[in-house]
Amino acid sequence: MEFDTIAAISTPLGEGAIGIVRITGPDAIKIADDIFQSPSGKTLMEVNSHTIHYGFIIDKRENKKIEEVMVSIMKGPKTFTREDVVEINCHGGLLSVNRVLQLVLTKGARIAEPGEFTKRAFVNGRIDLSQAEAVMDLIRAKTDRAMNVALGQMEGRLSKKIRKLRQEILEVLAQVEVNIDYPEYDDVEEMTHTLLQEKAKYVKNEIEKLLETSKQGKILREGLATVIIGRPNVGKSSLLNSFVHENKAIVTDIPGTTRDVIEEYVNVRGVPLRLVDTAGIRETEDIVERIGVERSRKVLKEADLILFVVNYNEEITEEDRKLFETIKGMDAIIIINKLDLPQKLDIEEIKKLAEGRTIIYASMKDDKGMDELEQAISSMYFKGEIETSDLTYVSNARHIALLNNAMQMIDEALFGVESGVPIDIVQIDMTKSWETLGEITGDSVHDELINQLFSQFCLGK
Ligand SMILES: Nc1nc2c(c(=O)[nH]1)N(C=O)[C@@H](CNc1ccc(C(=O)N[C@@H](CCC(=O)O)C(=O)O)cc1)CN2
Ligand SMILES: Nc1nc2c(ncn2[C@@H]2O[C@H](COP(=O)(O)OP(=O)(O)OP(=O)(O)O)[C@@H](O)[C@H]2O)c(=O)[nH]1
Ligand SMILES: [Mg+2]
């Protein structure tokens, strides 16, 4: 497909020693040539592909030097976008790259939308949708593991599995068609049923296997939403500070110190935590604190993991019991803090309330218990040493939802076969699941979704 020529700054604005203006499209090389002057007098129209050239960017109308640059010339289709690509390497600095970009735009290029380079790579068939989404994940990855998952997806690992499943479904649908066309064979109906049932079971099993990785995959990609809760003054903010190794949250001996929800990213043995400190939950007359308590309750509901802090130096209160009630059924670790102070806490009752969940004995003052806590978190989500390299993780919420949908349709197909529903109805369910799987790779998908997905990219990507 032939598109217009687009350009953008592909490096952080005004940071770093080099800044890159990237151009892609049919006029990329001509535009670059128009504003480039080499000391040797060569023109960019005649150079070999995948070569880089020293020279100056010149505003030829005013015969004015704009920048000293290195220009890469890459001719399609063996490029990032499969189109002609030019990269102008400028001196870093906001003004310098901006001047070059402005000049490029006056020569007929259009400013690129966020993600538009990667979108071209997709539309021109170099990568599929899940690979393009992986490019974005790669940029946002916060741990090595998350990065490995993104790299695997970018290489097309998930796409390959999905394509194989779609192929299987397509083959069985074709076979069913053939069988319908030759009804004169006696046992054709039974054969068709058996075939459909076997294939549906196989596909279902494969989807299930992928979905089994989704819990860990989602954590790796988005971070484990971890909320620190507990009554005022038990040491929640101190715990957050211990995790991030600095005094991010204000700690005082005044109960009700934390008023707002404080969020920090931490890497706990390869598990990315989106750690949230909350206002201590209690009944209060203070309006500001009450809003804080409300927010605490709200983030609590969306948590993947609760870190519930209680005070070794205080007796259990009705509020503690209520909190245990609130987190029923949720993943939680109980942290008994202030172990350096005399015991007033009834440990036996805490054990009962914990309902088998891990209890960590800690003192934020003496820096005790953090190792045990980190160990508990990592083994809770990644038992043993996981090898990200030989597992295909499904990490993206869009993919997870589509896999669940496809599975539902397969289930309906299976139910249909087993309860003697007419074959053409079963075919419809199988076809739907084939289409749904195709939305993951972008083989069956509409423009609106594509635009929405790519608009989430950064500018110049
Ligand atoms: N300067 C620069 N660095 C960059 C990028 C870029 O666009 N420019 N990339 C942008 O994100 C990433 C590299 N990604 C790329 C992916 C594919 C191709 C490419 O040309 N693929 C062709 C040819 C492969 C080959 O030579 O064998 C192809 O797949 O057909 C280029 C870059 C990271 N670093
Ligand atoms: N002795 C002792 N004091 C601690 C320990 N951990 C925290 N503290 C102190 O307890 C007080 C309250 O700590 P914070 O971390 O602010 O408690 P919080 O749970 O965030 O309190 P709110 O934000 O008011 O809900 C501070 O004076 C801390 O220094 C500990 O292990 N031992
Ligand atoms: Mg606090």
Q: Can you walk me through this structure?
A:
This protein is α/β, with parallel strands linked by helices and 461 residues long. Helix content is 46%, strand content 17%. The protein contains 16 helices and 13 strands. The strands form two sheets. A seven-stranded mixed beta sheet has the order 3-4-5-6-2-1-7. A six-stranded mixed beta sheet has the order 9-10-8-11-12-13, with helices on both faces. The mean pLDDT is 89. Bound molecules: the ligand Nc1nc2c(c(=O)[nH]1)N(C=O)[C@@H](CNc1ccc(C(=O)N[C@@H](CCC(=O)O)C(=O)O)cc1)CN2, guanosine-5'-triphosphate and magnesium ion. Ligand FFO is lined by residues 78-80, 87, 126.
Task: Break the fold down into its secondary structure elements and pairings.
Elements: E1 6-9, E2 18-24, H1 28-35, E3 36-37, E4 51-59, E5 64-74, E6 85-91, H2 94-106, E7 110-111, H3 116-123, H4 129-140, H5 144-154, H6 157-181, H7 188-212, H8 214-222, E8 224-229, H9 236-244, E9 262-268, E10 271-277, H10 287-301, E11 305-311, H11 318-326, E12 332-337, H12 347-354, E13 359-361, H13 370-381, H14 397-418, H15 423-441, H16 447-454
Parallel strand pairs: 1-7, 8-10, 8-11, 11-12, 12-13
Antiparallel strand pairs: 1-2, 2-6, 3-4, 4-5, 5-6, 9-10
Helix pairs in contact: 4-5, 6-7, 6-15, 7-14, 14-15
The ligand Nc1nc2c(c(=O)[nH]1)N(C=O)[C@@H](CNc1ccc(C(=O)N[C@@H](CCC(=O)O)C(=O)O)cc1)CN2 binds next to loops.
Binding site for Mg(2+): 237, 258
Family: Belongs to the TRAFAC class TrmE-Era-EngA-EngB-Septin-like GTPase superfamily. TrmE GTPase family.
Cofactor: K(+)
